[in-house]
Amino acid sequence: QYQRFGAVIPNREIGESFLGRYLQTKDEEDRYYVKVPSLRNVARTSPYFHTGEVPKLEEAVRMMGYHQLGIELTPEEIGAIVAFLQSLNGELHAAD
Predict the structure, then answer these.
(1) pTM to 2 decimals?
(2) For residue 52, what pLDDT is reported?
């Protein structure tokens, strides 16, 4: 599924690396829409975002709070969210 990155904060603050599907389609309707993966094993899949430019889960959570919700998360809130995301870890199986 694709979702818009920057739901609350104006996208001009996000930068060119987050233009999303627009880079492939050149369709203005696709600007800032990025593929949203499952959260399963998200704590094990750094770096984060489709550009891979965010190495730490804590930073990704902080950015999502700001860009998606328009809030500055406290360190305690970030820690609680990261703990929840770590609880979504499961066993990794080798591909057949």
Answers:
(1) 0.69
(2) 86
What is the distance between the alpha carbons of residues 72 and 70, in angstroms, rounded to a whole number?
7
The residue-averaged pLDDT of 6-31 equals: 73
Distance CA 23, CA 92 (A): 32
> Residue 14 corresponds to which tokens in the numbers above?
């996000």
25 vs 40: CA distance, rounded Å: 28
State residue 61's pLDDT score. Answer: 96
- Coil, strand or helix: which one is 57? helix
Partners of 48 in the β-ladder: 54
The type of residue at 69 is: L
- Mean pLDDT, the chain, integer: 84
Dist CA 92 CA 42 (whole Å) = 12
What is the per-residue DSSP string for 61-94? HHHHIIIIIS----HHHHHHHHHHHHTT------
